[in-house]
Amino acid sequence: MKTNRTKIEGTDFSKLTGEELADAFVFPADKVLSVKEKKEEEEFWVARRNQFENRTHKQKMYSRLLQLKFQLEDYINSNQYEEAFSFGFFLNEYVSRQDKKDKDFAVEVDVKPAVLSQYINNHRNPTDEFIIRLELHSNGMIPAISWFKVMQKDKEHEIMTSQKLRNEESKHVKNRLGFAY
Question: Above 90 in pLDDT, residue 106?
């Protein structure tokens, strides 16, 4: 039994060109709004814009920190390594999105400003205790495990790409297995 596929919901598609059909399915026409609906939609967007523009400092900071959390999660869940997205980058963003000076933040998490600077500039790996403090400071918004996973990505890249380390450690390996992988 052959069905007539040129009519759907009372529309005769046989009168349309292939391009018109493609446009209709790829970019469906917007619903035509009544004057009342257009006015309601416009009022909604005006109210939404006013609400956005009148956020408190605390609400703005919360939004910026949520953005950072999602950026951090996207990065650790991706298969790509980005040198720019180091632990220090995310830590610096965490501090700056709170509109705090490094010195003030260091006091809040009980580390010396010089140590914080070393963490931010990737000159020193953070301690487990410091990472736990970051979770506690964010009140759990950014879990310690997320900070650890960023560090793990950095370490994975270092292990995979450090020819110098491989050359140095090669001197310590004897009787390698005879088959190749």
Answer: yes
pTM for the complete prediction?
0.70
- Domain at 57-161, CATH from 3.30.365.10, 1.10.260.40, 3.40.50.2000, 1.10.3720.10: 1.10.260.40
Q: What is the dihedral of CA 56, 62, 67, 70, to 10 degrees?
A: -160
Largest CA distance in the chain: 83
pLDDT in tens, 44-61: 989 888 888 888 888 989
Dihedrals phi, psi of 117, to nearest 5 degrees: -60, -40
Rounded distance between C-alpha atoms, residue 80 and residue 75, angstroms: 8
